[in-house]
Amino acid sequence: MATVPLVRVCERCLNEPPALRRPKTGEKICKSCFYDVFETEVHETIVSTNLFHRGEKVAIGASGGKDSTVLAHVLKTLNERYDYGVEFVLLSVDEGITGYRDDSLETVERNKDQYEMNLEIVSYRDLYNWTMDEIVATIGKKNNCTYCGVFRRQALDRGCVKLGISHLVTGHNADDMAETILMNLLRGDTSRLDRCTEIVTAGTDSPVKRSKPLKYCYEKEIVLYAHFKQLDYFSTECTYSPEAFRGTARAIIKNLEAIRPSAIIDVIHSGEQFVLQKKTKNRMPKARTCTQCGYLSSNETCKACVLLGGLNASRAKIVLDTEPAPDQPSAAAISRSLERLSF
Ligand SMILES: Nc1ncnc2c1ncn2[C@@H]1O[C@H](COP(=O)(O)OP(=O)(O)OP(=O)(O)O)[C@@H](O)[C@H]1O
User: Residues in domain Cytoplasmic tRNA 2-thiolation protein 1 C-terminal (predicted)?
Assistant: First the structure.
């Protein structure tokens, strides 16, 4: 009976000893072939979609986590290697989450020097006069991701506008995309299902185009890349509970990946083939401006203003209930009131 020979050399260069089994393909390869194939795949994604143009200024949504840190590192490497002629800037949002974002922003401050990129930080405190810590103290942990997601999206837009930038890249990876496809499928959200696989999205409610250069990169490979390259990133999870539905979709994708590694890429390729029927396309929202903040919106009031309206009403109620109606309640008074509040 024929025996399968043990692979003792990298299956790509047939020279070096293998250092890892590639999660995406199962190939046993050496470190330098892994770097090469990982970076080349991102480059091919960029070139095949004409993602950047020479002279363009692009913001990298930098959270200090593994995905956006690998994104910044790889984009810097490719920009130099292939002379894209792009100027990259790091853009961070400080959501005001003690013990999480304050620490991860310190990482981004170091990345700024390591990658020789300018850094702009915008905060929920400055933009909305709320921090996520205060929001969670007011509404509880349930649904807090909805608030954070809406505010972050607009904060990144506003940061880009401040920098005079109209293109934002984020570290969303293949696992994130497969989860989103599954979530939209399970919710029957056909219009989002149609758009969520696109590498570039330019919504009616945003002046900034967004793109995902890592859309075909497996999360496991991003972690391996960051680990082998010893990149400086922040690995703690957000202290507030994750969105339950996404968490479940994530578990399904991880389970599928365990028995069929190509499942992630297969889900993305399937999602890319979905074509919206005309009647569904007609339901797409039209662009307008928010009557409250004047920002682009697909509704009369933008989502951020709707959420802020509820939060500010809660704050006003707490102050009226607990303080002798000062003109300007002190921050300390608001914090004390928020601490007493439970829903
Ligand atoms: N506070 C933030 N400031 C700037 N960009 C952010 C911030 N939070 C998220 N992003 C951007 O959105 C992407 C997806 O964020 P998300 O929190 O869903 O994923 P993640 O897997 O934790 O990403 P990362 O590993 O980069 O933190 C990030 O890779 C980053 O580009």
Answer: 289-318
Residues in the annotated binding site for ATP: 61-63, 67, 93, 171, 176
ipTM of model: 0.97
CA of 320 to the centre of ligand 1 (A): 37
Q: Which of 58, 60, 66, 67 to mutate to test the pocket of ligand 1 (most atoms within 8 A of CB)?
A: 67
Which atom number of ligand 1 is nearest to the Cα of residue 95? Answer: 1
Q: Which of 27, 44, 23 lies closest to 175 in space, CA to CA? A: 23
Domain residue ranges in the chain = 48-284, 288-343
Q: Can you list the positions of beta strands (E) in the chain?
A: 20-21, 28-29, 57-61, 87-94, 119-123, 167-169, 200-201, 209-211, 288-289, 296-297
Q: What are 259-265's contacts with CB under 8 Å, separation 24+?
A: 261/23, 261/24, 261/25, 261/26, 262/24, 263/178, 264/174, 264/175, 264/178, 264/218, 265/24, 265/174, 265/216
Give ligand 1 pocket residues (Cβ under 6 A). 61-63, 65-68, 91-93, 95, 152, 170-172
Tell me the pLDDT tens digit for each residue of 95-141: 999 999 989 999 999 999 999 999 999 999 999 999 999 999 999 88
Which protein residue's CA is at the shortest distance from atom 12 of ligand 1?
Answer: 170
Domain 48-284 sits in CATH at: 3.40.50.620
